[in-house]
Design goal:
Layout (H helix, E strand, L loop, with lengths): L1 H9 L1 E6 L5 H16 L4 H9 L1 H4 L1 E8 L6 E7 L4 E3 L6 E3 L11 E2 L5 E5 L4 H25 L3 E5 L6 H17 L9 E5 L9 H16 L15 H37 L7 E6 L5
Antiparallel strand pairs: 1-10, 2-3, 2-7, 4-5, 5-6, 8-9
Helix pairs in contact: 5-7
Amino acid sequence: IARRLSFIDSIDWEIRANEGADPVLAAEQTDLLQYAYNRISNFKEATKFLGSALFRGFAHLEKIETGYGNLVARLDPVPQWHWVRDGQHGRWRFNPEAKSQESHGEIVPRPDLCILEAPALNRAIGRHFFAKQLAFADWHQALELGANQSIFFVGPPGTSEEKELEYLAAAEKMASNLRGYLPHGADVKTVDTASRSRLPYFERIRYCDEQIVMAATGGLLTMLTQPGSGTLAGGAHAEGLLALARSDAARLSEVYQHDLDAHWLNEFFPRQPHAAYFSFEIPQKE
């Protein structure tokens, strides 16, 4: 998440003119959009929150208008747990108290929001994440049990039940620090665990990591780090991240074009074609 959102923090934006548009109209609309976006005081913060939809499934920004037309002073993030929806594709409703059992919230007019929706990665990642945690737990337990030889104490013949408990307590102390006293006739048997086959936990953890990264990057990467930035693997890794950055920037740009550009241009240029639009710019060679 940090790696992908870092691109959103660093990229610049510009207002472009549509090809073939009237140059005078395009220049006027470009000036308006440039002015409108520069008025948004928390634009970078809001855009980063909007980008969280790429992982959580959706994100909402509330428009706080300046009072001049429908221009915006701020885009306030609204945490995901405040939203409910009428089915998979119904209207979004605001749930002010974030009650988990609340099925109907307050209707918020769609023009008051900027919304990005994306396939949630929780389901795709969850299975591999929990499998990884289970492998870690099993691995730690296996290391604790297999680091030392297994020790069994054989008590002397004719030991009573009372003495067996006493010998058991002494044996547990001996097993923990490898020193102590045994009664005459007792014996010690050890079982060497070195002959066990190699434990497969590390391979399973690495496999889960690869599956998680593939899900989070749309299959473009298998691992977030590759050896050698100048190698073929390093170049492919950089190209994969750049492709993700272009994809994320395009989706964010579409949200602003739909939820901001269109509203402003309709307000200030009624019944005129839209000749300019917002766009994030991704460096081509970084």
